[in-house]
Amino acid sequence: MAITLKPGMKAPAFHGYNEKGEKINLADFKGKKLVLYFYPKDNTPTCTEEACNLRDNYHLFIKNGYSVLGISTDSMKKHQNFIKKFKLPFSLIADEDHSICDLYGVWDEKTLFGRKYMGILRTTFVINEKGKIEKVIEKVTSKTHTAQLI
Prior knowledge:
Layout: E1 15-18, E2 23-25, E3 33-38, H1 45-56, H2 58-63, E4 66-72, H3 76-86, E5 91-94, H4 99-104, E6 107-112, E7 115-120, E8 123-127, E9 133-137, H5 145-149
Parallel strand pairs: 3-4, 4-5
Antiparallel strand pairs: 1-2, 1-5, 3-8, 6-7, 8-9
């Protein structure tokens, strides 16, 4: 399954649970702009770089009216630790059954050192106030991800 969502399309409705066990829905962001980023795993070098870049520039997102929400297949507990360790100011959804990843087309076959496995394709969706996708970033540059978004 490849990413088939494109700018102008309606973002798929989802619900999941954040690091605090709170239910989060796409509808919670109606009337707001959302940076929805999918990343493979908490506490790995590239994912940490990406999260910290978003953290370090969080004030720019807020100033421009954006909320930020991360999604990976890690557990709520792992998300709690990741947020605490790196002082992340935004929530992370635990998509352990990868159902949200499937909806967004980011759960796909990957290859590492010649070994094939299923995992998250690092991708960011910018969703506008009306729930439409404004931007899809498939080639995320973790160290400078904010610059790709703003």
